[in-house]
Design goal:
This protein has seven helices and 21 strands. It has 420 residues and is mostly beta strands. Strands 2-3-4-7-8-9-10-11-12-13-14-15-16-19-20-21 form a 16-stranded antiparallel barrel. It has a two-stranded antiparallel sheet with strand order 5-6. A two-stranded antiparallel ribbon has the order 17-18.
Length: 420
């Protein structure tokens, strides 16, 4: 962190602290004191964004600043569908985000986060710093959440929240896990097929009772033409309806079910912002056994209308992931296998930041489209401060059957992940 950044945070803390003390009255405001000299750098990172907390303040209960930086580099070598070989070295600022959250009036939480970099060099594009100019991409998550359980004193539920705004779209087991904590450098292609990193505007009702958790959402499916629309939504087009059900078993294993239906059948275009499929379903099981961790996920759906007949029809696939602690909480081995297939010859996409990006390596991979795709990943994660700071190394093999022939490649990965 630069001296300028530290100064800004310190000044913000003192300014807000004095304001909140006045609002709270007496001596109830609690500004987190400076940590003692023995406080570790890891603890400092974990607590960096915790600016203010006082549950007794009727106006503002908590204020946080948070951010993440994800950088990765790699080298890919392979053979295109035309039989020609290709090779490329690349590096990418995958994510650079900053945001803030505010809990206020006892029942509300507001979240704002924006992306600070757009890096498409891996596919032959450019590196651009600053908030993206495209209206629909200016923000990451921006939403307001209402704690209905607390507000209405609902004893029959453990949780009842109502959220409106631009929020993360949860489809597939890998999407349920934040990019801060995923075990592989990139999510699998079949997960990205139904997730797409989408952040649509919508209304979500989230409830929990005992071992059951349920989310029900309705999302706008219209491209935002203004920055205001990208936060508040433009409901002039289609909608998507999403259901998430999570069952936690007695041994802490989880069963995760996701289903989405898209009621707009106009095909790709203005009304296909976050989900250009007709429907999709995902069923996953995950858990831990001692030093072992595992996840199995089956996914299927229908593309609906597309701009090409070869990209319509059904798609389906499965992901299996395993982890093992080589050194407890420090060094972890990771393995993943994924397969996806389709009824049409271009019904699957290898949503890879390297293999499918022919604009970078120049190989003929048919833009990552085909009817069968295998992916195998093996790596190790070195946790310097848990998921807050870690180094990830991996090797990935992709094999894609395209209408032109088979394309395959091996990618060597290295990545650094940091968040606070």
């Amino acid at each position: 962190m630069t001296l300028i950044t530290k100064t800004i945070i310190a000044a913000s803390t003192l300014t807000l602290g004095s304001t909140l003390a006045t609002l709270a009255g007496e001596d109830k405001s609690v500004i987190e004191p400076p940590k003692p000299a023995s406080f570790s750098s890891c603890d400092a990172l974990k607590n960096l964004g915790k600016i203010y907390k006082n549950n007794d303040n009727p106006y503002i209960q908590e204020w946080k600043i948070f951010g993440r930086m994800h950088y990765q580099t790699g080298s890919i070598s392979g053979e295109g569908a035309d039989g020609g070989s290709f090779h490329d070295n690349f590096d990418t600022f995958r994510r650079m985000r900053i945001g803030t959250s505010l809990k206020f009036a006892q029942y509300f939480k507001a979240v704002f986060r924006t992306q600070l970099v757009a890096d498409s060099r891996y596919k032959g594009g450019e590196l651009n710093w600053g908030i993206p100019e495209k209206e629909w991409a200016s923000f990451d998550e921006v939403f307001l959440r209402f704690n209905a359980k607390k507000a209405f004193n609902i004893d029959g539920l453990d949780k009842l929240d109502i959220t409106y705004g631009r929020q993360k779209f949860l489809m597939s087991a890998e999407a349920h896990e934040s990019s801060k904590r995923i075990k592989t450098i990139e999510r699998s292609a079949i997960a990205n097929t139904v997730y797409l990193g989408a952040l649509p505007v919508g209304l979500t009702i989230s409830g929990k009772k005992g071992s059951w958790a349920v989310n029900g959402s309705i999302y706008s499916d219209t491209w935002a033409e203004t920055r205001a629309d990208s936060v508040f939504g433009d409901w002039s087009g289609g909608e998507g309806y999403l259901l998430n059900v999570i069952k936690t078993l007695d041994n802490k294993d989880e069963i995760i079910f996701d289903y989405l239906y898209h009621n707009d059948d106009n095909g790709p275009g203005k009304n296909d912002f976050f989900f250009n499929k007709k429907w999709a379903v995902s069923l996953a099981y995950q858990g831990e056994r001692g030093p072992w961790g595992f996840m199995v996920n089956v996914i299927g759906g229908d593309h609906g209308k597309q701009d090409k007949k070869s990209r319509e029809g059904a798609f389906y696939g499965a992901v299996a992931q395993g982890t093992y602690w080589l050194i407890d909480d420090k060094l972890e081995a990771v393995g993943m296998y994924q397969w996806q297939g389709s009824t049409e010859e271009e019904g699957v996409t290898a949503y890879s930041k390297d293999f499918a990006a022919s604009g970078g390596h120049g190989g003929d991979v048919n833009k990552g489209r085909g009817d069968s795709h295998h992916m195998l990943y093996a790596g190790v994660n070195w946790y310097l401060c848990g998921d807050h700071s870690k180094i990830m190394l991996g090797v990935e093999y992709d094999n894609l059957d395209t209408p032109k022939g088979n394309a395959n490649a091996t990618t060597l990965w290295a990545a650094y992940r940091l968040y606070f």
